[in-house]
Specification:
Layout lengths: L1 H27 L3 E7 L10 H13 L2 E7 L5 E2 L4 E3 L8 H17 L10 H11 L6 E7 L22 H10 L10 E5 L13 H17 L11 E2 L30 E3 L14 H17 L5 E5 L7 H21 L7 E5 L24 H6 L3 E5 L3 H14 L1
Parallel strand pairs: 1-2, 1-5, 5-6, 6-7, 9-10
Antiparallel strand pairs: 2-3, 2-4, 8-11, 9-11
Helix pairs in contact: 2-3
Length: about 400
């Protein structure tokens, strides 16, 4: 009897010691804070479970405190925040963990925006304040197409932002105190260009420019990375289960951004009137160098190189001159490392090939005279990505007009 009692007491002591040691281990475990920043709108494909699953497992395995921010016009933290932990139930742990995972997936993937429009910078600022600065590990998981339609980066009102110099944009954002502090926070971004509904997808060049802009903004905010692909995860969306789908008909309507305008309409090339001779070839090379670097970084997408002229001389002469101007720029791009296969030249001469003067301005006065200022704007060459919205529009207008 005494022997059994001794064995029982030893077992009790072992269990209590194990519990104490486990508690000590938990107490000493590094604290992890993770914030999910979700832009699930009418114009963005609903986030699929294959994208979130690894991130939620990470949060669960690290006993993370977590929060969820909905990206809309007035980003806010929703009420499903708390702590993510794996189950410690001995015999049904695996099944129970899967149940926890499924519940978290459903909560996060189906969260709804409340307000119209999208303000990604504001959401990141909110997320940075949600995360405990004293946590050992800090992480923000973003799901967003990258298109803000309100706030300091409004691509809906100014789609040409993605073609601007990111450093100039950053300086402007700094002057307006619009950059969040993301120092020592790991960032992973899913969903760039996962658009649907009224929002059109970006071509390869626009996607590169958008990714580069956000990458440089995040770097300025204190995010450390050696390669931009460490930030932007290109995992494609998969079909989500019907139980996790959301009826978007009740979502607020979000503006679209017509990204894919004319990125380079370069009258700064400054052709001499009536010729394909550049006023300053060295200056033109300097204009082209950063464009060439962007084309290379984007994986050499194809471009239309389109020349135009002022409304002078005959139709035939102007077409020939505009082609010569396009060829001059094409040859310079070739010399700077862009292969022939990437460039297709067109000349529109003095023709208004659409009704909205999109490709040329009206450079004639009311009495039919040539306006000297507007005519100079038509002595230009345009570079338009072939797989962009503008590339589609141009070739349709060109074929309709000339054929």
């Amino acid at each position: 009897m005494k022997k059994r009692l001794i064995i029982f007491l030893i077992l009790v002591i072992v269990v209590l010691a194990s519990a104490f040691l486990c508690k000590s281990c938990v107490d000493k475990q590094p604290k992890t804070d993770i914030c999910f920043v979700i832009g699930n709108t009418r114009n963005v494909k609903q986030i699929s479970t294959n994208i979130l699953q690894d991130e939620i497992w990470y949060a669960m395995e690290n006993n993370s405190n977590y929060s969820v921010i909905v990206i809309d016009g007035n980003p806010n933290e929703i009420s499903i925040s708390g702590q993510m932990t794996t189950s410690n139930r001995v015999f049904v742990g695996e099944d129970n963990n899967q149940e926890i995972l499924n519940n978290r997936l459903k909560e996060i993937s189906t969260c709804n925006p409340n307000d119209e429009e999208i303000d990604i910078l504001a959401a990141l600022n909110y997320a940075s304040k949600t995360i405990d600065k004293n946590a050992d590990n800090k992480k923000i998981v973003i799901y967003s197409s990258g298109i803000s339609t309100t706030g300091e980066l409004n691509f809906s009102q100014n789609p040409e932002l993605i073609y601007d110099d990111p450093l100039e944009i950053i300086e402007l954002l700094k002057s307006r105190h619009a950059l969040p502090d993301l120092s020592n926070i790991e960032i992973v971004w899913y969903g760039l260009n996962h658009v649907e509904g009224e929002q059109k997808e970006f071509g390869a060049f626009e996607l590169y420019k958008l990714k580069n802009l956000w990458g440089q903004i995040l770097q300025e905010c204190g995010v450390k990375f050696e390669n931009i692909n460490e930030i932007f995860n290109e995992k494609p969306p998969q079909i989500i289960s019907t139980e996790n789908t959301v009826d978007k008909i009740d979502f607020p309507k979000v503006s679209t951004a017509e990204i894919g305008g004319i990125p380079f309409s370069i009258e700064d090339f400054n052709f001499k009137p009536g010729t394909s001779i550049l006023q300053n070839k060295e200056m033109t090379i300097e204009i082209l160098k950063p464009i060439v670097q962007d084309i290379k970084n984007a994986g050499y997408p194809q471009f239309y190189v389109i020349g135009s002229t002022a409304s002078a001389d005959s139709h035939k002469d102007c077409i020939e001159l505009s082609l010569e101007r396009a060829k001059v720029i094409k040859n310079m791009l070739n010399d700077l490392g862009i292969p022939e296969s990437c460039l297709k030249i067109y000349g529109i001469g003095r023709e208004y090939i659409d009704d909205n003067y999109r490709w040329r301005v009206n450079d004639l006065t009311a009495n039919g005279k040539l306006d000297p200022v507007l005519s100079q704007q038509n002595r230009k060459v345009m570079l338009i990505p072939i797989d962009s919205n503008s590339g589609d529009d141009f070739i349709k207008d060109y074929n309709k007009y000339f054929n």
